[in-house]
């Protein structure tokens, strides 16, 4: 077990943090949703109903959507763009290991590399592809949840319901999206710029403490 945690500690800790914070969101989101329903003169819902409600789906997946959009764009843009001095950037003045073509003869090469052909062509871009696919999936669920929550509010007020076609241009939906996207892009900008001048000894996301500010890459 010690060896397993040593080899997988980073992913284990972040998975546990995700589970704990998601649980916190669900508990307090459930309370908040029922409080809003009672204030509007409607009946409260039980826990199982809440987990399929627009309130839960919208609030959860609008966050997941923005995270995967940020990661997908960051992975893709670091192929073509450089930030001089950042530990998060490639150094375009030096050959980079990540740019070399894969060799099926490499020791312990993943099976798609050994297979070659279309499988290898996909594998070479698989990280970006999967991140963008997850973004699109979560974007769709966010849209569905937001529409469902909006229609519940309209129904309680006795107003006409929104259709998917009309809601795709609704200000509420895009406000939900952009308020999350901008925060993700700000956080990436911050780590890219701050890693030029600041250090964290022991972290793979930082340059060595004694590295020059304008040294690019980890």
Your description of this structure?
This protein has eight helices and no strands. α3 packs antiparallel against α6 (126-156) and α3 crosses α8. The protein is 66% helix and 0% strand. The protein is an all-alpha fold and 218 residues long. It starts with a helix and ends in a 21-residue tail after the last helix. It is elongated, with a radius of gyration of 22 Å.
What can be said about this structure in brief?
The protein has 218 residues and is an all-alpha fold. It is built from eight helices and no strands. 14% of the residues are buried.
Give the topology.
Blueprint: H1 2-39, H2 47-50, H3 54-80, H4 111-115, H5 117-123, H6 126-156, H7 164-167, H8 171-197
Helix pairs in contact: 3-6, 3-8
Helix proportion range: 55-70%
- Low-pLDDT regions: none
| Continuous helix count | 8
Beta-strand portion reads under 5%
The biggest sheet amounts to: none
Order of helices and strands: HHHHHHHH
* Oligomeric state as shown: single chain
- Main structural class: mainly alpha
